[in-house]
Amino acid sequence: MWEIYDALIEGIPADITADKIVCGSWMSIVVNRYGAGVSTVMPVETRLPLFSGNLIGKPLRQVAELVKSWNLPEASIGHAAINSFYNNPVIARSNGVIFSDSRHTEDRLNDPFITSQNAVKGKKVAVMGHFPYLETFFEPICELSIIDWEPIEEGDFPFAACEYILPQSDYVYISSRSMVDKTFPRLLELSKNAEHVVLVGPTTTLSPYLLQAGINDLSGFIIKDAEKAFNVVAGVFNSTVYSTGQKVSFKKTE
Q1: Contact 203/209 with Cβ under 8 angstroms?
Q2: Per residue in 28-82, pLDDT tens?
Q3: What is the domain range of residue 54?
Q4: How far apart are CA 49 and CA 179, in angstroms?
Q5: What's the domain count of the chain?
Q6: Which of the listed residues 63, 159, 184, 248 has the most CB atoms within 10 Å of its CB?
Q7: Structural domain ending residue among the three candidates 32, 67, 95
Q8: Sheet with 124-128, side-by-side order of all strands
């Protein structure tokens, strides 16, 4: 079950260090010499952390290993370390991710729910995670099932329903938070019969390996201003991380 995580970790060069790290209440961020990456913080700390020392200055690959921790805030730091490599502008562009150099771009052009409205017409669509405006985009045109880890919206399915719904779905959208709690490999396996599988969210890892592993579209985020993003996550700036970069779509090519 660790194959995906191991492949992402092994792809990080050994000579890169984690220069700055913050784990906030809702998001963590790791900065290296190329740029920054973020991850979702899930407040589950029933297990002790794997590492108790200072992570700043440690090899990025070593910090990335923490994604395997069952202390989920610590796992978030590990995932952010992975993303700080694959999602920074230099490495992402070298891997084939297309994005603008402009500071301000139109995110709607790379929003996976907006851009796939025609494709999902009449299809069975499953979304892991209750994203904003899902019902507006999809409910009138497809058979929509929204599955959430902690369902609070009327009509949402509990997480266990993924075992039954995903294998019957044509289109599957998986929240990138699944990388932190380690549900991603199972969700991907359950989606193997789908026509199209999307990993979606600002913490989606933009690695070509994931496109080979069964994902058709990596709908993620490139941080262009690492310093501002760090200050946003640290609570210095009253803003959102979306103000520091651009949504991108990294698709599998046939």
Answers
A1: no
A2: 999 999 999 999 999 888 888 888 889 999 999 999 999 999 999 999 999 999 9
A3: 2-95
A4: 17
A5: 2
A6: 63
A7: 95
A8: 157-158, 143-148, 124-128, 171-175, 196-200, 217-223, 245-251
